[in-house]
């Protein structure tokens, strides 16, 4: 029996195309598409990109300064509960900060890290408010069972920080 290389190569190419194309189509229609819709429907979201792996969902968000970050995370975890499952959500934000916001965050980092380390989360908003006086910067701090969400804005500039409440993964220095 003589093997013909051209039909074998065509069969391999068609099989690989169907397999990987089918996987891409499945991911796009059953996971990324619905998550994209949930996030895009939220007030203040300009764009969102997802990278979904077996145990983690990386979300790259472009947010407007007045976006309620904890509300967005809550919407993703409640409306997208079946899609997220046991995966962890990791957020990355498009940088719209300014030198003024970065200097403010640099000065606030120690106070926030101290409150996080001592698990005195209620001190974070008051410490930020003390530091923000007469700067024109607005801060918003919220918390859920997993994270502390800090939003800092100054006009069109904004900075969003998600800090895990798990002390072993302190994200304040990132």
Report on the structure:
The protein has 174 residues and is α+β, with helices and mostly antiparallel strands. It is 46% helix and 25% strand. Strand 5 and strand 6 form a beta hairpin. Helix 4 packs antiparallel against helix 5. It is elongated. The relative contact order is 0.12.
How many individual β-strands? 6
Structural class: alpha+beta
Helix content: 40-55%
Taking the alpha carbons of the first and last residues, their distance comes to: 63 Å
In N-to-C order, the SSE pattern is HEEHHEHHEEE
Largest sheet descriptor: 3 strands, mixed
Mean pLDDT figure: 86
The share of residues in extended strands comes to 25-35%
**Order of neighbouring strands in the sheet with most strands:** 1-2-3
Highlighted features:
5 helices; 174 residues; 3-stranded antiparallel beta sheet; elongated; 6 strands; alpha+beta
